[in-house]
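We modelled the chain as a single entity of 396 amino acids. Its sequence is:
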Amino acid sequence: MASDKITRDDLLNVLKEGVRSWNDFRKTVLLDKNPWLEGIRVGYTITPGDPDPRDLEYINFKDACLASSRFCEVSLSHADLRNAILESTMFHKSYFINTNCQNAIFTEANLYKSLLSSADLTNAKLNLCKLESVDFQNAKLCGADLSRTFLFKTDFTNADLRGADFTGALMLETNFTNANLEGANVYGVSCWDVCLDGANQNDLSITSNGKTITVDDIEVAQFIYLLYDNPKIRNIISIMGKKSVLILGRFTKERKIVLDAIRDKLRSFDFVPILFDFEGAKEKDFTETIKILAGLSRFVIVDITNPKSSPLELQATIPDYMIPFVPIIERGEKPFSMFSDLQNKYSWVSDVIDYPSLDLLMNKFEVILKKAIQIEDQLKINKHKGETRTTRLEDL
């Protein structure tokens, strides 16, 4: 078959014959000529090949309609997919290196473990796509529609995402290292364990009703939106203030059993426990995090059995928050040396409750709650009376 007499139907027939037939056809018949399938309207299945992926590199698929097709383990690197319709198409473990996908429609496509590094997806529609473990390193996604996409372990390192639309996207362990997200829409985004090292997050939009509200951090976007929508944030803060209880202690083997038991017991009384491990956090802002959580809690239960567990955090927290602090300690242990100073200076720190066993602590758990509520009631009385607690300068 002479290469100058090959039709698009001939190309499609060879494609369907299998990986080896197609790859051999490109090498022996097409030689250096690139297949031309511009504007085709077909839907077909290309199954995985062994050992090499099907060679679809440099093919002209511009304006093609390949909706609902299956392209498993194919190489479309350097291909032309401009304006192509690829809705509901499967591209498992496929290659799009330096592929031109401008304005392509990938809606509801599945690109599992595909490689799109340095691909041009400017203004492409990737909405409702499954992008698990997809590599977009150095790709261009300016103005791309990524709304309601599933992004799990997706890599956008150095990607250009200016003005991209992430409305309603779910991001799990997504990597945005050094990516440019300037002006992206992140309304309704859910972020968990994302990496944003070196990312440009300027002017992220967090609204969808035409009003312009921008933030510079995708991870705080949800919270900022709640602040904007005042009734919701007021309700959340009110619920936290009534039900949240911060539990502080160490996650050593012996102590974690106690902390877990306290957490479960609080749940049985319809509280919302927040369990924080002193042992695990090593970041510089660790104490600040505890202070924020304390400020959102109704009261704090702190296990001071191990003297290394909480001195710095309590000294930084108790003076700033007039909420009940209820310390517990295993019988036979002693509080850290400066704890008595905190008790003497701050009336919202209760007497230490010691316990001989975990079973007895759980059986008498109402004592802890009673202590916390008594302090809470007294603080309300003091506030109503306008009393002010003063610390002398020489005591500081």
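As a brief sanity check on the tokenised model: Residues 365-385 form the longest helix (21 residues). The radius of gyration is 30 Å.
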